[in-house]
Amino acid sequence: MQAFTAMTGLVAPLDRVNVDTDQIIPKQFLKTIKRTGLREGLFYDWRKQKDGSQDPTFFLNQPQFQGATILLTRDNFGCGSSREHAPWALLDQGFRCVIASSFADIFYNNCFQNGILPVVLKADEVLAMMNDCLATPGYRLTVDLGNQTVTTPDGVRSCFEIDPFRKDCLFRGLDAIGLTLQHEASITTYETRRRTEAPWLFTDLRYDQGGAR
User: Fold this and answer.
1) Structural domain boundaries of the chain?
2) 105-113 and 164-172 are packed helices; what angle lies between their axes, rounded to 10 degrees?
3) Which fold has domain 6-172?
4) What is the CB neighbour count within 10 angstroms for residue 152?
5) Radius of gyration of the chain from Cα atoms?
6) What is the per-residue pLDDT for 123?
7) Is the pLDDT of residue 109 over 90?
8) Is 159 helix (H, G, I), strand (E, B) or coil?
9) What digits encode the pLDDT tens for the residues 22-64?
10) What are all long-range contacts of 167-171, with beta carbons under 8 Å and residues at least 24 apart?
11) 213, pLDDT greater than 50
12) 10 Å Cβ neighbour count for 4?
């Protein structure tokens, strides 16, 4: 998993509340277990008009937001089902950080497991950034995980809270597998000892038409 330390990135505004995971990535895109290629389904129903053409009013279809790495949105982002494809699709689009006034718990947790930093700020702070973003072409924010701050172009700094354990994992780029591999030497030592203590647990079973032998 890619580590997150600090970044200054172009901001894309999604000025909506209660964005659920079926809107982030609709069900027809959940057949794959690959984490790539999902950007095509990101906000699919909102990006398209009834005739199937691109909706020019939706931010993902607007040239000024191409290459955005920070998604700015509103209350209760990521509610609904627990599908991990939602953060996968956001990451495949290039978003490394999502800023909102609140998140659904499961989506919030899934972000950390996939290298995305979900930042919770006060509603009035989010609203001020949203207004500035909509009014300012090329609006950028600086997000510093180490100092737990978000800084606007005019120097206004907002602080956010984050669990120390999650912060450390994201800062070092460690997901659940990465955390486990931190103890690889101890795991190998244990497995070697168990092979000596209980060799029957590691005996290969071979089968033929007559059964096990």
Assistant:
1) 6-172, 175-203
2) 30
3) Aconitase; domain 4 (3.20.19)
4) 19
5) 22
6) 97
7) yes
8) strand
9) 999 999 898 887 778 899 999 999 998 888 889 999 999 999 9
10) 169/112, 170/3, 170/4, 170/112, 170/115, 170/117, 170/145, 171/3, 171/4, 171/5, 171/145, 171/146
11) no
12) 21
- According to DSSP, the residues that pair with 8 across neighbouring strands are 142
**Length of the chain, in residues:** 213
Task: For residue 143, give the 3-state DSSP assignment.
Answer: strand
What is the spatial distance between Cα 190 and Cα 81, in angstroms, rounded to a whole number? 39
**pLDDT at residue 156 above 80?**
yes
Residue 99: strand pairing partners: 72, 119
* 37 contact partners, CB below 8 Å, separation of at least 6: 92
What are the Cα distances from residue 200, in Å, to 93, 194, 208, 210? 49, 10, 20, 21
Which tokens hold the place of 26?
A: 């609709």
For residue 9, list its beta bridge partners.
Answer: 141
Return the amino acid letter for 94. G
Instruction: Enumerate the H helices of 121-204 as residue ranges.
Output: 123-135, 164-172, 176-181, 184-197
Cα 151 from Cα 159, distance rounded (Å): 9
Yes or no: say if 93 and 37 are a contact pair by the CB < 8 Å rule: no
**HEC profile for 27-90?**
HHHCCCCCCCCHHHHCCHHHHECCCCCECCCCHHHCHHHCCCCEEECCCCECECCCCCHHHHHH
Single out the residue of 14, 12, 16, 24 nearest to residue 65, CA to CA: 12
